[in-house]
Amino acid sequence: DIVLTQSPGTLSLSPGERATLSCRASQTISSNHLAWYQHRPGQAPRLLIHAASIRATGIPDRFSGSGSGTDFSLTISRLEPEDFAVYYCQQYGSSPRTFGQGTKVEIK
Amino acid sequence: QVQVQQWGAGLLNPSETLSLTCAAYGGSFSGLYRSWIRQSPGKGLEWIGEINESGSINHNPSFKSRVTMSLDTSKQQFSLKLRSVTAADTAVYYCRQAWCNAAGCSDSWGQGTLVTVSS
Q: Cys-Cys crosslink for B36: which of A41, B15, B20, B48, Cβ 3.0 to 4.6 Å?
């Protein structure tokens, strides 16, 4: 199974700041099939990014994904109040699909 | 925009079978990809399995042979059964439907069902 390691575990930032989240895979992810999800408390997760860098429909352009192979990142250019949440990466290039353990972005 | 609604029993005894169903409403149903995901208390997300557009099923081997997934295209519903549950299966279970069309790719999740396994 591909193990995804996200860092940091928690990111403490203020609204308006830039957030950079990392996701490292234990082996190369096929076709860069790496997705990012946002999970707000009390809500279902939602897809932000797929194929490592393509924003899902309706996702604001302050969210961007990059990377390839085993190293990926999600950047939120300017944090809005609604962006404080837990973010997960997931690989879907091989089975079983696996998730990272999550990065919590909290208000400083 | 596809909306997804899920339902099923929330309290089970050990050794019983978890049964959840998910229905999709609205939008186009081409290029669909349906999956089940759970989140145990205090933990992250865990992929249970998926049904792709052609109806092929792929599930997480960690569940061994306990998982059954099915699809009823006439009703736009898909279901999950997890047999012989234990306390370790206590979690919020989500269904997810993902699709791609000319506008791009997106997804819609069910509201989540808290399933508690306890005697």
A: B48
Cβ-based burial of B42 (10 A; exposed 0-12, middle 13-18, buried ≥19) = exposed
Task: Give chain A's mean pLDDT.
Answer: 97
Å between A54 CA and nearest CA of chain B: 9
Instruction: List pLDDT tens digits, range A17-40.
Output: 999 999 999 999 999 999 999 999
State the nearest Cα–Cα gap between B50 and chain A, in angstroms: 9
Cis amide linkage into residue A8, ω under 30° from 0: yes
Residue A56's pLDDT band, with cuts at 50, 70 and 90, is very high
